C-alpha cells in the first residue's frame, strides 16, 4: 500500500482526533496557553480568552507579556529561561490588566514541552487560573483581622497591641487569657495575619465542644479502622495547619490524656494519628486561649504544670470591658458604623440617657455582649439616636440605672463622655440632693467648685 493510500485511510481519523483535542482544549476551566522557545504564543484556549479579554487571533505570535499585561515586564524572559533550563514554574502569582482594563490576579504554572522529533524543548504549556475572587476574599479576611480592628485607647489594650507586634514574627507558643467575649480569637487571628505564616492555614479548634475521644481524632487524625465508625483515614487539625497556625480555644478544658498528648507535640513537634504507630511531624505555631485561670487549675492538680509553662511562653492577658470603660465610646462608634452598613441604617450615636445605662452596666459578656446589645438596639431603633427603650432589658433595669458613687466619679473623670452623659449624671445627682449643691457634690465625689464649673459648662441652673 502506498504512502498516499495510508494518508487517505488515516486522514479522517486524525482530523477527528485533532477536533476532539481542540474541543477538550477549549472546554478546560483554566486558561491554557502554549508558547514557543522564544516565548511567543502558539495556542490560546477559550478560557484564556475569557480571562484576558483578548481573542486567540489577537494573542497568536505575540510575546507572552504583551497579552498577560503586568508590571512584571520580564514575564516572557522568565518563561524563556525556564524553557532553556527545563524548569517548571508553579503557582506564580501575577496581577494583570485585561484588554478591557480590569485588574485580575492569576496563578501561572508553566511546564516545558519536549520536541517529539529532536532532543530539545519545543516550548511550554502554561495554565492560568483566575484567582481574583479568592485573592479578594483573602485580603478581606486579612483586613478583618488587622491590628486596627482591635479597638481601644486604654493603656491595658495598648499593652496588648505591643505584645501582638512583638510576638507576631516569632514562632513561640502564645497563651491568651481573658474572660469570655474579650476578643481572644481576634487577637489570635491578628498574631497570625501579622506573621510570616499569614498565607498559610489558620486552623481553630474549640476544645470545650468535643469529648476526649473525638477531640483526639480531631486534633491528630485517625486511620481507617482505628475505632468503630472510622471508615476512612482522616487528617487531623495539626496536620491540616502545617506551615501555619493552630488556635486551641479553651485549653483549660483539656482532659489529662489530651494534655499529655499536647505536651508531646510541644516538646517534640510530632504526633501519631489515632490507630497509627508511625510518628508524623508538623511545622505549626500553637496559640492557645482560655477563659479559666490555668494557674489555679495547676494548684488544684487539674492541669499539668509542665504543659502550663510550655503554653505560656508568651502570655497575653485581655482585660474585661468593665476595666476599660473609657473605650466604650470608641467601641460603640465602631459597632454602630458596622451595623449601619450591614442594615442600611443611619444611626448617629446613642443618647445621653442611653450612654448612662451603657456606662453603668458591668458587661459580664464583655465586648461580645456589647456588640449584640448594639445590634439589638439598632434593629429596634426608629430614630437616628439609640434611646434607652432600644437597649436590651437587662441593661436598662432600674436597679442597674442607679450608678454607685464610684461609677459616677469614674464617668465624670472621662472628658470624652462629658457631652454624652455628664449632663444627665449631674442633673440626677442634683435631683437626689433636692437641689443642694454641696450634697450633690458629695454624691458625685467632687468638690463644690468643680460641680459649679461643670454646671456652667452644661448650662444647668
TrEMBL record:
CDD domains: AAA, PAS. GO terms for molecular function: ATP binding; sequence-specific DNA binding. Keywords: ATP-binding, DNA-binding, Nucleotide-binding, Transcription, Transcription regulation. SMART domains: AAA (SM00382), PAS (SM00091). Pfam families: AAA_lid_14 (PF25601), HTH_8 (PF02954), PAS (PF00989), Sigma54_activat (PF00158). Residues 17-86 form the PAS domain. Residues 150-379 form the Sigma-54 factor interaction domain. One of its GO terms (biological process) is regulation of DNA-templated transcription. This is PAS domain S-box protein. It comes from Abyssobacteria bacterium (strain SURF_5). The lineage of its organism: Bacteria, Pseudomonadati, Candidatus Hydrogenedentota, Candidatus Abyssobacteria.
Amino acid at each position: 500500500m502506498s504512502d498516499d493510500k495510508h494518508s487517505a485511510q488515516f486522514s479522517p481519523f486524525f482530523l477527528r482526533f485533532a477536533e476532539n483535542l481542540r474541543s477538550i482544549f477549549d472546554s478546560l476551566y483554566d486558561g491554557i496557553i502554549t508558547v514557543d522557545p522564544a516565548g511567543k504564543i502558539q495556542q490560546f484556549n477559550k478560557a484564556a480568552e475569557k480571562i484576558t479579554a483578548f481573542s486567540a487571533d489577537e494573542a497568536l505570535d505575540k510575546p507572552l507579556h504583551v497579552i498577560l499585561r503586568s508590571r512584571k515586564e520580564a514575564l516572557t524572559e522568565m518563561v524563556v529561561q525556564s524553557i532553556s533550563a527545563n524548569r517548571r514554574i508553579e503557582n506564580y502569582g501575577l496581577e494583570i490588566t485585561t484588554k478591557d482594563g480590569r485588574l485580575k490576579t492569576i496563578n501561572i504554572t508553566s511546564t516545558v514541552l519536549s520536541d517529539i522529533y529532536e532532543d530539545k524543548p519545543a516550548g511550554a504549556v502554561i495554565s492560568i487560573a483566575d484567582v481574583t475572587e479568592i485573592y479578594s476574599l483573602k485580603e478581606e479576611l486579612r483586613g478583618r483581622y488587622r491590628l486596627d480592628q482591635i479597638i481601644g485607647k486604654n493603656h491595658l489594650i495598648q499593652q496588648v497591641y505591643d505584645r501582638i507586634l512583638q510576638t507576631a514574627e516569632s514562632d513561640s507558643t502564645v497563651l491568651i487569657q481573658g474572660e469570655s467575649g474579650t476578643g481572644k480569637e481576634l487577637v489570635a487571628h491578628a498574631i497570625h495575619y501579622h506573621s510570616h505564616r499569614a498565607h498559610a492555614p489558620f486552623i481553630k479548634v474549640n476544645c470545650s465542644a468535643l469529648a476526649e475521644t473525638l477531640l483526639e481524632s480531631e486534633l491528630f487524625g485517625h486511620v481507617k479502622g482505628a475505632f468503630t465508625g472510622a471508615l476512612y483515614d482522616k487528617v487531623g487539625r495539626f496536620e491540616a495547619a502545617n506551615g501555619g497556625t493552630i488556635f486551641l480555644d479553651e485549653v483549660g478544658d483539656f482532659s489529662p490524656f489530651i494534655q499529655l498528648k499536647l505536651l508531646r507535640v510541644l516538646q517534640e513537634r510530632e504526633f501519631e494519628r489515632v490507630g497509627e504507630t508511625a510518628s508524623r511531624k508538623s511545622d505549626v505555631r500553637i496559640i492557645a486561649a482560655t477563659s479559666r485561670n490555668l494557674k489555679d487549675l495547676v494548684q488544684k492538680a487539674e492541669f499539668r504544670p509542665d504543659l502550663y509553662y510550655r503554653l505560656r511562653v508568651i502570655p497575653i492577658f485581655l482585660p474585661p470591658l468593665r476595666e476599660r470603660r473609657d473605650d466604650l465610646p470608641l467601641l460603640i462608634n465602631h459597632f454602630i458604623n458596622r451595623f449601619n452598613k450591614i442594615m442600611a441604617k443611619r444611626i448617629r450615636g446613642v443618647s445621653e440617657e442611653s450612654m448612662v445605662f451603657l456606662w453603668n452596666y458591668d458587661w459580664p459578656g464583655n465586648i461580645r455582649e456589647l456588640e449584640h446589645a448594639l445590634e439589638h438596639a439598632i434593629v429596634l431603633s426608629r430614630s437616628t439616636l439609640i434611646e434607652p427603650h432600644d437597649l436590651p432589658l437587662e441593661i436598662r433595669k432600674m436597679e442597674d440605672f442607679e450608678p454607685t458613687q464610684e461609677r459616677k466619679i469614674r464617668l465624670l473623670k472621662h472628658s470624652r463622655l462629658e457631652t454624652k452623659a455628664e449632663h444627665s449624671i449631674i442633673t440626677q445627682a442634683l435631683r437626689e440632693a433636692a437641689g443642694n449643691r454641696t450634697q450633690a457634690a458629695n454624691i458625685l465625689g467632687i468638690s463644690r467648685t468643680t460641680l459649679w464649673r461643670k454646671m456652667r459648662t452644661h448650662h444647668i441652673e
